[in-house]
Design brief:
Blueprint: H1 3-11, H2 17-31, H3 35-48, H4 52-65, H5 73-80, H6 86-96, H7 103-112, H8 119-132, H9 138-147, H10 153-164
Helix pairs in contact: 1-2, 2-4, 3-5, 4-6, 6-8, 7-9, 8-10, 9-10
Length: 171
């Protein structure tokens, strides 16, 4: 098979997570996938790359290469759910949160943070978001809901303090 679909099929034959990530990244740069082809790539990568680090690196590369408005965030966050390391999960979300997301995409990202089981990693992500984004309305509600999922009282307190230390925008 030729073309982008053929290239994705060839990646199936590779045996190393590192090599798969390198090939997916090259595919990303050469084919510039969008729409269903990007969704197919994300789905395939999340199934074939078992290393949390390698999958996280690929997801970061996708967020840096593809316009945030062109990414289906449900598919992206679904792929991210394959990353079981709380550190890697937070690292991806931290980087992606700074890519100029729409309020809807940022809300989904905040909701996805609930998959982070480590109170420290979860609070660290939320604090970063509170420091870098205007959180009002639905964003603020999503943030509060996610912060309330943090099991450690200390870390939950840090996340809530970061939200309340910000000036409240006049609506």
């Amino acid at each position: 098979q030729a073309g982008p679909v053929g290239a994705l099929s060839e990646i199936n034959q590779l045996s190393s997570d590192y090599v798969r990530r390198v090939y997916f990244k090259e595919f990303l740069e050469q084919a510039r996938p969008a729409g269903s082809l990007l969704d197919q790539m994300l789905d395939q990568a999340s199934r074939q790359i078992s290393s949390d680090y390698e999958l996280a690196e690929l997801l970061i590369a996708i967020a840096a290469t593809v316009s945030p408005s062109a990414i289906d965030w449900n598919t992206y966050l679904n792929a991210l759910s394959s990353v079981s390391s709380d550190y890697e999960h937070r690292r991806v979300l931290s980087i992606v949160s700074d890519t100029g997301l729409s309020d809807d995409a940022l809300t989904r990202l905040i909701q996805s943070s609930r998959d982070i089981r480590s109170s420290y990693e979860h609070a660290t992500l939320l604090i970063q978001i509170a420091q870098r984004h205007q959180l009002a309305g639905g964003l603020r509600d999503a943030y509060l809901s996610a912060a309330n999922e943090i099991s450690s009282n200390y870390e939950r307190g840090r996340a809530l303090e970061a939200l309340y230390d910000l000036p409240v925008p006049l609506v």
